[in-house]
Amino acid sequence: MVWSADDTRVVTCGADGAVYEWEVLTGRRLAENVLKQCSYSGVALSPDAKTTFAVGSDRTLKEITDSQVVDSDVKISFCEDEKFHGSSYSVRLSFMTSEQNVVMFLLSC
């Protein structure tokens, strides 16, 4: 689970393959992306909260915008840092893996 920088949104992910974006004030679900074949274990947000990064059992980084996976080509190995650039953000993500799961951390913007 991750909060947006302005604390107005929360993004969650789960073993059921779902990534949901929630509006904190109302509890309303704003966006969703479900991939049943992936058990998610980590999620991060871009600084502008327009892009979600999610990782899980398939060990690929999913870049999600407007409820759609726009990129999933990055394969995650044991321990690495990756730099990602979007139209209005640049983030550095760090990944730690075990045999079953990947955990992701947003290191810097």
Description:
- With 109 residues, the protein is mainly beta.
- It has one domain: YVTN repeat-like/Quinoprotein amine dehydrogenase (Methylamine Dehydrogenase, Chain H).
- It is built from no helices and 11 strands.
- The strands form 3 sheets. Strands 1-2-3-4 form a 4-stranded antiparallel beta sheet, with no helix packed on it. A 4-stranded antiparallel beta sheet has the order 5-6-7-8, with no helix packed on it.
- The chain is globular and about 35 Å long.
- The mean pLDDT is 77.
Identify the notable features of this structure and list them briefly.
single chain; 109 residues; mainly beta; Methylamine Dehydrogenase, Chain H; four-stranded antiparallel beta sheet; 0% helix; globular
Q: What's a concise summary of this model?
A:
The protein has 109 residues and is an all-beta fold. The protein has strands spanning 2-3, 9-13, 18-23, 29-34, 40-45, 52-56, 60-65, 68-75, 79-85, 90-97, 102-108. The protein has a single domain, classed as YVTN repeat-like/Quinoprotein amine dehydrogenase (Methylamine Dehydrogenase, Chain H, 7 Propeller), CATH 2.130.10.
Low-confidence stretches: none
Query: What is the CATH superfamily?
Result: YVTN repeat-like/Quinoprotein amine dehydrogenase
**CATH-derived topology:** Methylamine Dehydrogenase, Chain H
Rounded to an integer in angstroms, the radius of gyration calculated over CA atoms is: 13 Å
Determine the N-to-C terminus distance. 18 Å
CATH architecture: 7 Propeller
What's the total count of β strands?
11
| Average pLDDT over all residues | 77
Q: Please report which band the strand proportion falls in: under 5%, 5-15%, 15-25%, 25-35%, 35-45% or over 45%.
A: over 45%
| Structural shape | globular
Largest sheet: 4 strands, antiparallel
The chain-level structural class is mainly beta
Which strand order does the major sheet show?
1-2-3-4
The top-level CATH class is: Mainly Beta
Query: What is the percent of helical residues?
Result: under 10%
Number of domains: 1
Element pattern in H and E: EEEEEEEEEEE
Count of individual helical segments: 0
